[in-house]
Amino acid sequence: MSFFKVEGVSLHFGGVRAVDNVSFNVDKGEIFTIIGPNGAGKTSIFNLISRIYRPTGGRLMFEDQDITNVAPHKIAKMGIARTFQNIELFENASLLSNLLIGRHCHSTTQAWQEALFLPSVKAAERAHREKCEEVIEFLDLAVYRDTYIASLPYGIRKVTEIARALCSEPKIILLDEPSSGLNVEETDDMAFWIRDIRSQLGITVIMVEHDMALVSRVSDRVLALNYGKVLAMGTPAEVQQHPDVVAAYIGA
Ligand SMILES: Nc1ncnc2c1ncn2[C@@H]1O[C@H](COP(=O)(O)OP(=O)(O)OP(=O)(O)O)[C@@H](O)[C@H]1O
């Protein structure tokens, strides 16, 4: 069984080929990173996987199921969660409230049951809170649990976004530039979190990242894109030394 597969996927915006016939596989438990100069098509691939965009051609397979036409909310329910390049949290809510929102794809109770506050609703609520507390503990966020997002330092917000994605208990987490805006020490911590997400939680990581030191430290394999096309794929060292990749970055 192949875990996650992108097969000949394209995305065109008018005349712009943001993604042009791209194929790759990601194995279960892998840390797979997509790199490329600005405008290479990295975010477009994330938006295709999370179904924000519908591909112009090709298909996406997850655990041998064709997910090309699955609705975005169902993608989350199937076990694919993501973070965004520009943090997307509710600023005027506590860290814990933001995580509880991240659990909503697991909600099985109906509005009428919630209105009556039935025992099943109380049990579900307790389970949601327990999961959030587990994630808070895992990412060392307990001290910030009740703090409003607006009052949190940027680095903690980045970790909170990851926490929110983890609360949905994903099989794959898509991290869009996890180190952007972080200082050296915070980037160092981020490398540990990324590796722990894989090693301790068994979650597969697909990441878009510009910081090549971080890419080399954590990635099993790297895919390099330019102008929507695959330039190279392999270990971080193989891809970094690939002449087409070197040329793309020098020309960028
Ligand atoms: N909604 C859109 N409408 C039109 N063109 C778009 C749209 N989204 C992306 N593009 C174009 O598609 C190409 C790929 O963009 P994308 O954002 O995927 O690149 P990227 O590799 O993520 O870049 P960056 O590193 O700057 O975030 C670019 O030429 C971009 O201008």
UniProtKB/TrEMBL annotation:
Instruction: Report the InterPro entries cross-referenced here.
Output: AAA+_ATPase (IPR003593), ABC_AA/LPS_Transport (IPR051120), ABC_transporter-like_ATP-bd (IPR003439), BCA_ABC_TP_C (IPR032823), P-loop_NTPase (IPR027417)
What single Pfam family name could you report for this chain, choosing any that match? ABC_tran
Q: Which GO terms describe its molecular function?
A: ATP binding; ATP hydrolysis activity
Q: List cellular component terms (GO).
A: plasma membrane
As recorded in UniProt, its EC number(s) are 3.6.3.25
Residue span, ABC transporter domain: 4-252
The UniProt entry, under Gene3D superfamilies, shows: P-loop containing nucleotide triphosphate hydrolases
In terms of SUPFAM superfamilies, this protein maps to: P-loop containing nucleoside triphosphate hydrolases
Role noted for this protein: Involved in beta-(1-->2)glucan export. Transmembrane domains (TMD) form a pore in the inner membrane and the ATP-binding domain (NBD) is responsible for energy generation.
What protein name is recorded for this chain?
A: Sulfate/thiosulfate import ATP-binding protein CysA
Name of the gene: cysA_4
